[in-house]
Amino acid sequence: MNMFWDTSSTIAPGNGFSLFSATHLAWLTAAALLFFVAGRWYRTAPESSRQRLRLLIGILLLIDEFLKDASTLATGRFEWAFLPFHLCSINIFVIWAHILRPSDAKSEFLYAICLPGALAALLFPSWAQLPAWNLMCIHSFSVHILLMLYPILLLCGGYRPHFSRLRPALFPSLVTVCVVFGINKLLGTNFMFLDNGGSGNPLAWAESALGNPGYLIVLPVLIGLVWLILYLPLMVLRKKRAA
Hints:
- The chain has one domain (15-242).
- Helix content is 67%, strand content 0%.
- The protein contains eight helices and no strands.
- The termini are far apart.
- It has helices at residues 22-44, 47-74, 87-100, 104-123, 135-156, 167-187, 202-210, 218-242.
- 27% of the residues are buried.
């Protein structure tokens, strides 16, 4: 039971799960089923019901974050890395901004940033050294599933992305990256993987090949590739419809 309260920093080696193991695939399958069922319901639900579901997701995200902080503080395992400066934690604030005052610009940010970021975290979990029955493991999977669910529901509800709506967010995003980079240097953290590539993900592989900070060159390349995948098919489809 002691391992239930452990974190990635306190767990003994050899107690985690492998990428795309039975544990990992079970979480991914459960997430896919949730996205499918919730998306189908959301597509035909009235706007009042949609609003309640979006609010529920926002509340669950806050509860998820509170349990993480409360449990680590109570057990003496809290560390600076649990502050809300990771990209996915910042997306919780964006989701709440959307809940309180929806806009196309916020929806676009959630599509272009939150959705692929949460998917990457689920595919390459940085918490893989934790056992399946561990609070931080459960928190990490559930919070990223909720983060991915929110923009998926927006898409199912009829939102149609357009890259031009993302442009106003580019400068604030760059400022945020610079601030987080400074926080990492001040606290010795690795928010947004700006201090090192982590482990078990493409940035870690890039760091092993290019060194540190050489791996940072890969970040804009990955972002550009992700946006190409997210937007190019939509652009082609619009051109075909226009023709």
